[in-house]
Amino acid sequence: MEKVQVGEVFSISDETGEDQEVEVLGVVTIEGTDYVAVGFLEDLEEETEEDIDIFFLRIDEEGDFSAIESDEEFDKVSAAFDVIFDEEEGE
Q1: How do the domains of the chain map onto residue ranges?
Q2: 3-class DSSP state for residue 36?
Q3: Edge to edge, what strands does the sheet with 33-40 contain?
């Protein structure tokens, strides 16, 4: 399976079953599991000063994306991405 790359665009189904295009903003591996941070492409393309919603997804062995289900896992992933995004802003 190919690794997901930053900037890659793909569709996911939202809670209503409607497809939404998202762009990968970051990728991190924690304890052997890959995670991506994504934002809705529509939000990213808008030129606005407002914050955008960022979502974290787990990538399973088959390359499928799934939601993070526990608060503990979410906190761990969120902290890892905070470090990555803070480093990028400091460049």
Answers
A1: 9-90
A2: strand
A3: 9-13, 19-30, 33-40, 54-59, 65-67
Of 67, 83, 69, residue with least CA distance to 28: 83
Whole-number pLDDT of residue 16: 85
pTM assigned to the model:
0.82
Residue that is written with structure tokens 């079953």 in the block: 17
Three-class secondary structure assignment of the chain: CCCCCCCCEEEEECCCCCEEEEEEEEEEEECCEEEEEEEEHHHHHCCCCCCCCEEEEEECCCCCEEECCCHHHHHHHHHHHHHHHHHHHHC
